[in-house]
Amino acid sequence: MPAVAVPRPVAAVPRMRQTWDLELNWQSEAGCRGSDANLFFSPTHLESKEERAVREIAAKAICGDCAVRKPCLEFALMTRETHGIWGGMNELERRHAVRAAVS
């Protein structure tokens, strides 16, 4: 008789809400509004580590003075945004934040 695979417990992951029903009025107050989106999102061409670091520092400086930084970051974490700087965090930093919250 073959062994039966027993499913392993899955870590509790917060349920994601649909993005279209979220309260997004905070976006009109965002410090990045009107800024060059190229600061917040990776270019379509390959960028060096140094170019990425300079770009992210500039974007995070805008986030640092933003009145709606917290709801921006909460939105990105809740929707598992995979691209760009949101609420002062890049993709990798948000991924680590989600993992830390789950464990």
How would you describe this protein?
The N and C termini lie far apart (37 Å). By secondary structure, the chain is mainly alpha-helical. It has helices spanning 37-40, 49-64, 69-78, 91-102. It has one domain (30-102). The chain contains four helices and no strands. The chain is 41% helix and 0% strand. The model has no long low-confidence stretch (mean pLDDT 84).
Assembly category:
single chain
Largest sheet: none
Work out the number of β strands.
0
As for the number of domains, it is 1
Which class do the helix and strand fractions yield?
A: mainly alpha
Mean pLDDT across all amino acids: 84
The span between the termini is 37 Å
The percent range for strand residues is: under 5%
What are the segments in which pLDDT stays under 50 over at least 5 consecutive residues? none
Helical stretch tally: 4
* CA gyration radius, whole angstroms: 17 Å
User: Which H/E pattern describes the elements?
Assistant: HHHH
| Range of helix content | 40-55%
Globally, the shape reads globular
Write the layout of secondary structure elements.
Blueprint: H1 37-40, H2 49-64, H3 69-78, H4 91-102
Descriptive tags:
103 residues, mainly alpha
Describe the structure concisely:
This protein has helices spanning 37-40, 49-64, 69-78, 91-102. With 103 residues, the protein is mainly alpha-helical.
